[in-house]
Write a structure and sequence with these properties.
- By secondary structure, the protein is of the alpha/beta class.
- It has one domain: TIM Barrel.
- Helix content is 41%, strand content 11%.
- It contains 20 helices and 12 strands.
- An 8-stranded parallel β-sheet has the order 9-6-3-2-1-12-11-10.
- α12 crosses α14.
- The mean pLDDT is 95.
């Protein structure tokens, strides 16, 4: 069945508290998706964010971002007052997220809610049992990690005292007792996150909307995953990375991309039947209906950069787990709904892996119009089993991208779409039409492109810091006229 969807992180929704949350605005957005003839909502990862604010660099692969907790629901539950929430400065710009202000204000207000929630229990053991019964072991590891991290002034685990850095049993026991209250606070946040997200997801399902979530292939070094399970990663005897992840130099970057994530010990993972990955995917399949796996190429082969390098120039390719990982996954879960992010330079072996898994691949229209060479991103080259995007979270908006195109590439796009008479201010609709009209089973359009926004609405510029992940949709921006046009086009091209 042909489908259409919209890409918009939950954090980009409007709300009165500085960031999009699981609030009434999220429920209203689900209603708008339905009205616009959409059947999928792609939301990107929802893990707790750290330095750089990227959801692709999370403190845990098994936890949710407490920034997404709806404060209004906590007010309705009697755990907060509207006056208390109004006194905090979460950021006043409705079009931008101020992560610095959230970092200061969110924990304070959530701690008030925690204290009130806790006061309902007379038995401290009952509090612990109530929270831990709701959480997976890895999520509780995250809560312990964050409590210890807070104890050490928010430093990464590599800078902690030696005994707890290496997770000596007596040290772990000491901090579990010493920081019990703080651990319970993080467990409270995760419990609330899961409860609120489950309710929103169920509402989406009731309206015929499926959720597409993203997972990055790599874990962050500053994460509970790396601290609690160093055996999973290419670490030396001091638990420091011997090599890190990235991408080689290409036409976009002479130095390549140095991501810095620790690489997996795939030999160890294989010996365990990929147990950690099975637990990770189980968590994801519980969270989302469809999982888009970022940097799918890394399962075929991954780029290894020696630790300590300042650029990605001196890296080399190593073999990944290949089809064996996904065979294990199929044995455990049956047929799984995964989208393979196979963008960039794709080798024959990567193409074979994607084909062997049966997962739909990705096509991005912004990669299609290079007048110097042929491109398999042009819609006439698509297979049915793929997902087409005008752009992803890492791309400029379609208008911003088009305005910066070289004249020859722009002319190619105009000729391909027969768009000679289309004003530049309306050109985004021609690209949307191209995506929806293609044979791709699923077409996903970033909301910014439906709104016709320029580069000011770009979500992320890879390998940069500063203003990424901050864009928010203004209230009422997704107008009835735009929704009607969305629906009309989705219907015309058989996606309803």
């Amino acid at each position: 069945m042909r489908k259409a969807g919209i890409l918009l992180p939950v954090s980009s929704l409007p709300s009165p508290y500085g960031i999009g949350t699981f609030s009434k605005e999220a429920y209203e957005f689900v209603d708008l998706l339905k009205e616009a003839g959409q059947s999928c909502w792609q939301i990107l990862p929802m893990g707790p964010t750290g330095y750089g604010d990227s959801p692709y660099q999370s403190f845990s692969a098994f936890a949710g971002n407490p920034y997404l907790i709806d404060l209004e629901q906590l007010i309705q539950d009697g755990l907060l007052t509207r006056e208390e929430c109004g006194q905090e400065d979460f950021g006043r710009d409705e079009s931008r997220i101020d992560y610095g202000k959230l970092y200061s204000a969110r924990p304070k207000i959530l701690h008030k809610a925690f204290e009130r929630w806790k006061s309902a229990y007379k038995d401290p053991d009952a509090i612990k049992e109530c929270l831990e019964a709701e959480l997976e072991e890895e999520t509780r590891e995250y809560c312990l990690y964050m409590a210890i991290k807070h104890h050490f002034g928010e430093k990464s685990w590599i800078q902690w005292d030696e005994d707890i850095r290496r997770r000596k049993p007596e040290a772990v026991k000491f901090y579990e007792q010493e920081l019990e209250e703080e651990i319970l606070f993080y467990e409270f946040q995760q419990t609330v996150f899961q409860k609120q997200w489950k309710a929103l997801k169920e509402y989406a399902h009731s309206q015929g909307i499926s959720i597409i979530g993203d997972i990055p292939i790599y874990a962050a070094f500053d994460s509970a995953d790396a601290w609690a399970h160093p055996e999973l990663f290419q670490f030396d005897e001091n638990n420091l990375p011997s090599a890190v992840a990235g991408c080689p130099p290409d036409g976009f970057s002479a130095d390549g991309q140095l991501w810095g994530n620790p690489l997996y010990r795939w030999d160890y993972q294989k010996a365990t039947g990929y147990a950690w990955w099975m637990r990770r995917m189980a968590y994801c399949f519980q969270m989302y209906d469809v999982v888009r796996v970022d940097h799918f190429r890394g399962f075929d082969e991954y780029y290894s950069i020696p630790a300590g390098e300042q650029t990605a120039v001196h890296g080399h390719w190593e073999k990944g787990p290949g089809i064996a990982l996904f065979q294990n996954m199929q044995e455990k879960f049956g047929n799984v709904n995964i989208i393979a992010e196979d963008l960039g330079f794709v080798t024959d072996s990567v193409q074979k892996l994607v084909k062997d898994t049966g997962f739909p691949s990705m096509k991005v229209l912004q990669f299609a119009f290079d007048s110097r060479e042929e491109s398999n991103y042009l819609p006439h080259c698509y297979p049915h089993n793929c997902v087409v995007y005008t752009g992803t979270h890492d791309n400029d908006t379609i208008r911003g991208w088009y305005e910066s195109l070289k004249p020859a590439d722009k002319q190619m796009a105009v000729r391909y779409m027969n768009s000679k008479r289309t004003p530049e201010s309306e050109i985004h609709w021609d690209f949307i039409r191209l995506a929806l009209a293609s044979v791709a089973d699923l077409a996903v359009i970033p909301l910014q492109d439906y709104l016709g926004l320029g580069s000011e609405a770009r979500l992320n510029t890879p390998s940069t810091l500063g203003s990424n992940w901050t864009w928010r949709m203004k209230k009422d921006a997704f107008t009835p006229d735009i929704r009607e046009k969305c629906r009309s086009m989705a219907q015309l091209y058989g996606r309803i």
